[in-house]
Structures are given as C-alpha cells and as structure tokens.
Amino acid sequence: MMKKLAFALAAALISTAAFAVANNPLQSANNLSDVASAATARTNLGLGSPNTLISATAPTISSGFGTGASVPNNNGTAAFTINVGTGGSASSGVIGLPAAAHGWNCYATDITTNSTSVFVTKQTASTTTSATIGNFSDVAVATAWTASDILAVSCFAY
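Request: output the structure for the sequence above.
Response:
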C-alpha cells in the first residue's frame, strides 16, 4: 500500500513539475508588456470586465458632515481619512466617489473619539457615485460626531 501511495505522489509531483516548467506564469516574459489593450490584458489574466474595485481617485466631501469637513489623507478609495469638521451637529455625511458599476461598500471607524454618543460609524446609503456614512450612539440613535473627529474609511465598488 505504501509503495502505491508513494508512486501516486511521485507521479503527481512529476506531472505538476512538468506543467509548471512548460507553462510557468512567473517567467519574466509573461509581464504583459506586449499587450497594447487593457481589455485584452484583463481577458488574458481572467479578470473579466473593467469594473472598478478601488480607485486611485481621491474621495471628496459631497454634503453633510460639519463646517470645513475634508479628506486630509488618501490612498484613493482603498484607505482615506475624513475630518468631520466643526459645528457639533453633523451625524452623517456623503462621500463623493468615482463611478462604480452598482454602488459602494464602505467601512468607517472614528479613530478619535469612542464614547456612548460616538459609538459606531457605519454606511447608511450608497449610489454609483457616493456613499453616506453616519454616527450612532451605543443605543443605535444617530448622534453628532465630536468636532474635528477623524474617521478612517475604506470603500470598495460593487
């Protein structure tokens, strides 16, 4: 039995090794530098349609938040911060994002304040070009962020 198992394992390793040598996708010649079309490259890589997942475009403040709200730091839509501004009455805001096929899925965390009134920040709405996020208390009531709180946000298109 052990000889059969060892033979089967050896055969599998040999066939895998032969396949890897013949079709090595990690060869330096397979860098797609010869592909002139992005659509062809996506097809060759099996990536399908040109739908956005993340974008290098910086998000913007569309509405809501407080006076002077801003996006002080960003790595496109993958990771950015929002300063909620001042005024002390804003409990939600709309983030402007690049066009997505269907909408945006965003995750946000207040990295400045954690209290019973600034308990959870989460997405509440989405369009193809925006996402709305809001602040909620420990009993799930919409409440204002503390002035100039910083939110860490990541948004992914769907």
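Residues 2-22 form the longest helix (21 residues).
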